[in-house]
Amino acid sequence: MKRIILSIITLFLLLSAISLDVSAAKNSAKLSKEDIAQMSDSIDTLTKKIYGRALLSPQDNETLIGIKIKLDNQMLMAANPALAPLYYKAGTIYRLRDMKPEAIECYQTILENFSDTALAPKARMSLEQMGVKVAAPTSGEESEEGEDSEDGI
Question: How far apart are the C-alpha atoms of 92 and 19, rounded to whole Å?
């Protein structure tokens, strides 16, 4: 009985969180070129710190999380190819910080939404280097039938 109640509560919280994300995405304006440039500069600064072996401050972590949230909210509205480099750079930061699930999510977003960009092969290679099995994309009817199977992670 406790499991059923906990499952119902978990489901309710999950649905609430999803509806908040969707409503926040709808309410937020489309990212401008200036917003994308600012996020790119912030990610470049964080990358320099990591390569320089500097520790990220709580503010740096907050910046990275904020960028990821903005990217994900924008993706809920429409996939913009200008976001692919930001996802790749964020994935690299997460990978260098040993935050594998977050890195996988960033790279997988590139493969799923920006497969025709030059970053898709790099994202695939990064996933393979992390030991993630990347399934070859399927097309047409095979794609619809394969949705119930493993997604390559």
Answer: 29
Average pLDDT on 132-149 reads 56
Q: What is the pLDDT of residue 134?
A: 81
Query: Which amino acid, residue 85?
Result: P
Whole-model pTM? 0.67
Distance CA 118, CA 4 (A): 47
Among residues 130, 129, 131, 134, the alpha carbon closest in space to that of 110 is found at: 134
64-97 pLDDT, tens per residue? 999 999 999 999 988 889 999 999 999 999 999 8
Q: What DSSP string describes the chain? A: -HHHHHHHHHHHHHHHHHHHHHHHHHHSPPPPHHHHHHHHHHHHHHHHHHHTTPPPPHHHHHHHHHHHHHHHHHHHH---GGGHHHHHHHHHHHHHTT-HHHHHHHHHHHHHH-TTSTHHHHHHHHHHHTT---PPP--THHHHHGGGS----
Considering only the C-alpha atoms of the chain, give the largest distance between any 2 of them, rounded to a whole number of Å: 53
- Output the CA torsion 121→125→128→130 (10° steps): -130
Q: Distance of CA 133 to CAs 7, 59, 128, 145, Å? A: 30, 34, 6, 19
